Task: structure prediction
Amino acid sequence: CFLKDTLAYGVDVNSDVYKSKDLGVTWRKVGNAGIGNNIKLYFRSDDEGFLLTNLMLYHTTNGGVDWEPILLPTIPGCTDFCMSGDTAFIAGRSGVILRSSDGGNSWDFCNRKLYPHLNALLMLNKDTIYAGGNNGTILFSEDGGNTWYQQYTGQETDIYTLQRSNRQIYAGGVSGVLKNKQAIHYLTNYTWEPKKNILEQD
Result:
């Protein structure tokens, strides 16, 4: 997790948190956070950050020295975390999506419809969010997570990552990479197609 200038944070399999001030050349242990398998480490400032595990969300306000668990409305088998401003989302098993509107302090369900397990999140801004999951599932919201639309991918294999490059959205999984057929314009009727050459620029 790299921040501005030369500051970076990292976490190992034992939940030990490390800090680097020289772009990762040297690291110093600063604290330990929680239990569970580490999923996502995210710092929104030099001192405030979040660590998502498969069981819990942890929060620090002193640069990773101390971590406090944040109560979630369920233990969804957490899989990904994303944040833009004070709005944040957590994805999980059985299509669970949790949302926070107060900087990660409190959480609630923003999707109660059952979908396949979700594995990845991508926020373009606080209103526009993608979620990708098993069986080729891609969900899309353009109203801050109040409404979710399922987009057609034509795939039945699992999606594990979502990335944005310029005005194109990509979804990666066990069968390769998919891309939007259209550039980003915030419509809900996207369809997806395989990207045949991942080295070729769009």
The mean pLDDT is 86.
